[in-house]
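Can't paste images in this forum, so I'm doing it all in text. The chain is below; anyone willing to post the predicted structure tokens underneath?
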Amino acid sequence: MSFGQPLLLLTLLAVPLVVGLYLLAQRRRARYAVRFTNLDVLAAVAARTRPWRRYVAPAVFLLAIAALCVAMARPSVTKLVASQEATVILVVDVSGSMQATDISPTRLAAAQHAVDIFLDHAPENLRVGLIAFAGEPDIVTPPTSDHGLVREGADSLGYITGYGGTAIGDALAAAVQLAHQAVGATKPASGGATIAYHPRGPQSPVSILLLSDGAQTRGVLQPEQGAALAKAAGIPVYSVSLGTPNGMLTRGGFGGPGGYGRFGGSIPVPVDPTTLREVATATGGKFTQARTAKALDASYADLGSRLGRKPGKSEVTNEFVLLAAVLLLGAGLPAALWSPRLP
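Text version of the structure:
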């Protein structure tokens, strides 16, 4: 914790001064005899008073004074604050296997809801882009601070489901290219250009959040090549593996739901987290395995609270003033409840 006016912390000396004056007053009081004609009433009042209670109200009052003294010094704490230039590229797998129902109601529907959760926790000024991919990447929403537009794009993912495989490497390359465009990079991602700012980790100004359920099955670039582009640009990739080992996809006959052949049936679509873990590790990001919709929402809520932020100072003067007010109220209640009363 730091202070905008550290010299005002000297006002805390008022606390030991008040304690000293209180002890002095107690000493002076003991010098004088007190006459009380009705000793029975005095004994009854004294019997109901516990010694420690007389110190609660003064102690809480002194804490309130101390909180006000600290507030006067304008305290600040270091925490993650929204970065004005931050950008996050959401990359969502919309391949056919995302229609599996091992994640309720489907993997894709859970992913769409997770995007909403992410936006609920993200800073209002965070620029968010959305890319959907199956056999090839498709830019659904360019980076924008209009989160309503991104939500609309996420809602449309169910209508652009593709069955042409999973091109993770190409999707990463598209995300890197989109990030370069968002920050005004002068060279294409394929040239290995580095974005002007290069910090990594959860406070990086540019991040990629990749969600998929399977291994690479199609594409020009392999996942490790796409990860290399992100690493060269200084962009961490936070990857989320969605699904369970027992995932099944029901296919319909003659082009029905699933679209995998003429005859109905089910095919296994087990999740493959290995590739996504390697991508996150290579770029300095973080890998998460989500086997339930609840776990996916928790992961996206956490990332929404951290990505696009950087360490900064936040003044907490109002918090200390509020604490002082609560303590003053707390000092008055026991004083009113426990003060001795004549029967």
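The CA atoms of residues 98 and 190 lie 29 Å apart. Residues 185-203, 253-262 have pLDDT under 50 and may be disordered.
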